[in-house]
Amino acid sequence: MKTIRIALVALVIATLSCCSSVTGLKNIADCKFQFKSISDVKLGNIDLSDKKSYKNLKLADIAVLMVGYAQHSLMLDMNVNMKVHNPNDQAAQLDGMDYILFIDDQQMLEGKTKDKVKIDAKSDDIVSLPVTLNFYDAVKDKKLQQMAEMAMDLATDNADASRVKVAIKPFFTFGKDTLRFPSYITIGGDQVMPKKN
Question: Taking residues 145-155, what's their average pLDDT?
């Protein structure tokens, strides 16, 4: 799988005072990010992890989806999981990230998470980015069954990750100030998600 190396402007680092936060910031710039998987997919709060097609839905589930569709409010929840490798001798950290989610090369959502992330020295970890969007607004040209099956495709074990990518911009806080990476780092969009064991 293609790995993405984050390039951080050296001048920004040089202007910051030495402290553990700055060390964590510098180290995250050396980390490698890989798209790992999509998990915990829900549409209208209905778990789609064991649903392979629209025919697998219960009548009660379809009724819930129909109400959301009629009200133009059909929420899609999922986790975008990334594998992060920290090659440094010290921990890497960030205080949150801005993100842009794409499905089938269509921008679905811009958002921000303030979840702190710390990757221990010389180690790998999985970072999960929770995403919630109004799927109706994102793909309102599609019928209900098409929307549901599109969401189900993301939940299957062998979903094609070339359909999904996320652009992230990590940020760090220093007192009242927030420092963001100079550009977005794009992850995914070019590989097949590994099958679950």
Answer: 89
